[in-house]
Amino acid sequence: MLDRVVPGYYQRLDAKGNVLTSTCCPNTATENALAERLMIDSVVTWARDYHVDGFRFDLMGYHSVDTMKKLRAALDELTVDKDGVDGSAIYLYGEGWNMGEIADNALFTTATQGQLDGTGIGTFNDRLRDAVHGGGPFDDDPRTYQGYGTGLYTDPNGLSDSTEEEQLADLGHATDLVKLGLAGNLKDYSFTQSDGTVKRGRRSTTTVRRLVTPPARRRRSTTWTPTTTRPCSTWASTSWPRTPPWPTGCA
Questions:
Q1: Looking at 14, 41, 53, 58, which residue is catalytic?
Q2: How many structural domains compose the chain?
Q3: Do 34 and 9 form a contact (C-beta atoms < 8 A)?
Q4: Residues 35, 118: one domain?
Q5: Nearest CA-CA partner of 48 in 94, 80, 93
Q6: Strand 198-200 relative to strand 190-192: parallel, antiparallel, unpaired?
Q7: How many angstroms from the chain centroid is the CA of residue 26?
Q8: CB contact at 8 A, 75 and 92
Q9: Is 83 a catalytic residue?
Q10: pLDDT tens for each residue of 73-109
């Protein structure tokens, strides 16, 4: 639709002039001034006129840090007296993945994990998510890899080929991720890691600053979906996918 307004402007193009779709939809080129303004004006309108009090950006890493900081500043200008809302209280966070044609800051400094310190903008914490339920979003069978909250080592479901020692080490690492995540991934938070060393968040191999740790959100919730697909040993099944009713009594 945007490409019909000004062809070749609002969408990001490849060298041949084709619209890039690495986000699984037409990629928006907010590095262009009016595309950036469209996004910022839209968010401000939703906040001011409809009182939306928080915004989560799918694939936020496809925008630049500068664009997201401009958005943050635009919201901060909203006041109760003038606009009916306190814009500074509106929270911004999103998926800070390093991927696609803008990976590794190829076009600009991307709004990704580890690059938003001091902006007041958060990125989704996939480390805590995966530590709690095990595995990752691209596993062939989501039951295979258990996590801290789904019986890793303590109640194996028999689907992983990892040894007992490997599962114990994995549980230790997952525990480190959970500890740091529950502390908000604070860079100055000091804790004892599973290997016995005491480190601050900034020195830990598990941390990226400004990660958001929600117990559940729309995309791959931290608790519900995984605990129904990574059963403990009392409910392991050879068939997939499972259908309701879901099990009870599993971690």
A1: 58
A2: 2
A3: yes
A4: yes
A5: 80
A6: antiparallel
A7: 21
A8: yes
A9: no
A10: 999 999 999 999 999 999 999 999 999 999 999 999 9
Whether residue 245 lies inside any domain: the answer is no
Comparing C-alpha atoms, which of 10, 3, 17 is closest to residue 33?
A: 10
What pLDDT is attached to residue 207? Answer: 46
Please tell me the distance from the alpha carbon of residue 170 to that of residue 172, in angstroms, as a whole number.
5
Task: Specify the pTM.
Answer: 0.78
218-235 residue pLDDT tens: 444 455 555 655 554 444
Q: Is the dihedral of CA 94, 100, 104, 105 positive or negative?
A: negative
In terms of Cα–Cα distance, which of 151, 93, 150, 146 is closest to 119? 93
Asked if 38 and 108 sit in the same domain, the reply is yes
Could you tell me the strand order of the sheet in which 211-212 lies? 54-57, 91-94, 121-124, 211-212
Q: State the average pLDDT over residues 21-26.
A: 94
What is the C-alpha to C-alpha distance for residues 77 and 149, in angstroms, rounded to an integer?
42
C-alpha 68/C-alpha 70 separation (Å) is: 5
Q: Is 155 a catalytic residue?
A: no
A 10 A CB-CB count for 220 gives 17
**Catalytic choice (95, 126, 130, 176):** 95
Residues 6 or more apart in contact with residue 191 via CB below 8 angstroms: 176, 179, 180, 183, 198, 199, 201, 204
> Could you list the residue range(s) of the whole structural domain that residue 63 is in?
27-124
Residues 105 and 132 in one domain: no
Tally of CB atoms within 10 A around 228: 19
